[in-house]
Amino acid sequence: MTENLDPKLIGKYTMATWSYKQGEMIALMIHLGHRLGLYKAMDGAGLVTPEDLANLTGLHQRWLKEWLRSQAAAQLIKSQDGETFLFEPEAAEILAREDSPKFSAGAFAVVRPSEVVDGIADSFRTGLGLNYDGLGSESAQHVEGMLGPMTKALLLPTIIPNLSGVTEKLENGARVVDVGCGGGMVIDMLSEAFPASTYVGYDPSERAIELASKRLSGRDNVELQLAGGEELPDSGDIDLVITFDCLHDMPRPDLAMKAIRGAIKDDGTWLIKDIKSSSNWEDNLKNPMLAMMYATSVGSCLQSAMSEPEAFGLGTLGLNPDVAEQMTSDAGFTRFTMHDFQDPTNLYYEVRP
Ligand SMILES: C[S@@+](CC[C@H](N)C(=O)[O-])C[C@H]1O[C@@H](n2cnc3c(N)ncnc32)[C@H](O)[C@@H]1O
C-alpha cells in the first residue's frame, strides 16, 4: 500500500518539531545569560557592543558576540545591525530583575543531568516515577526558580489578607504547618512577617529540607520535618495548613488530605495553591502554555505523583477545581472557596472543616 503524504502537513510538523529544538537551544542561552550575569549587566546599560559587554562582565568578547546574536535572533534583545544590542527594560523585568513577579530566568537555572532523563525514560517501562530527590541534586532550586517569584509577589500583600480571619490569627500567634514546604520560602516570608506564630514545614525530599534548613537556621519558631503530609500527627490544633503546588505531586494526596483534616483545628484554615486547569480538555487547550505544562508533568510532577506503587498519579494538571472540591470533601472538609489572585498559573482554595 502506498501512502499519500500531504506536503503541507509535512511542513507543519517539521516546523513544529524544529521550533521545539530551537526552544531547547534558546533555553540553554537563557541559562547562560542568567548564570553568567549577562542580563543583569545589560539592564540599564543602553546600547552595547560585545566589547562593552566584555568590559562590563570580564568575559570573552567572541563568545559574547555569538550569544548576543542568538538573543537578538530570539527577540529577547534588540539589534538592527548585529553589532550593537539593546536590552529593553521590559525584557529586563523578565530576565534580569529577580524581585519582579514576572522574573522568569530562574526557571532556566537548572539543567537536567542525563541520569535524570534516563530515569524518566525508565518510568515509562516500570510505571514508577522518580521522587523529587531523584529529579536531580538541584530539584528544590529548580522548583523555586519556577514558582518563587509569584509566591514572593502575592503571598503577603494579596493571598493572606484575603483569607477569612487568618491575618489576625497569625498576628496573635497561630500554629502553622506548610506541607510540601520545598526550600522553605513560604515559611521564611510568614515567619518574618508574623513572628508570634510557630511554623512546621513537612517535605519528604532531603534536598528540599536541606535547602529549607539552611534558609531558616536560627529561627526559634520554625521546625522542619523530613516527612510527607500523610504523616501529620492527628493533633487537631493547627490554625493554618498550607499546601502550595504539591498535592498533585503526591502519590497519595487522599491520605495527606485526611491527615490534614486530623491535624487542623475545627475553626482552622487550609490554603491550597494548585495549577489552574480544567476537567475539560477544550478549556485546557485555551492555555497557551499547555504543552509546557504536560511536558512538566511527564518530567517532574507526574514523576513524583507516581513514585510509589498504588499511586493516584494526578500530575501537573490533575488537581482541577472539581477534583479539589471532591477530594477535600471526601477528606471531611465542608467549606470550599476558590480564589483567583491574578496568578496566571495557579488557583487558590480556602478550605475549612
Ligand atoms: C513543586 S514542589 C512545591 C514546593 C513548595 N511548596 C513551593 O511552592 O515552592 C512540590 C513539593 O512537594 C513535595 N512532596 C512530594 N510528595 C509529598 C508528600 N507526600 N507530602 C508532602 N510533600 C510532598 C516535594 O518533595 C516537593 O518539595
Overall description:
With 353 residues, the chain is of the alpha/beta class. The protein has two domains: 7-107, Winged helix-like DNA-binding domain superfamily/Winged helix DNA-binding domain (Arc Repressor Mutant, subunit A), CATH 1.10.10; 114-352, Vaccinia Virus protein VP39 (Rossmann fold), CATH 3.40.50. It is 46% helix and 14% strand. The chain is built from 14 helices and nine strands. Strands 5-4-3-6-7-9-8 form a seven-stranded mixed sheet, with helices on both faces. α3 crosses α4 and α7 (139-159) runs parallel beside α9 (185-193). It is globular and about 65 Å long. The protein binds S-adenosylmethionine. Residues 132, 143-144, 147, 179-182, 185, 202-205, 208, 228-230, 244-246, 249-250, 256, 304 line the site of S-adenosylmethionine (SAM).
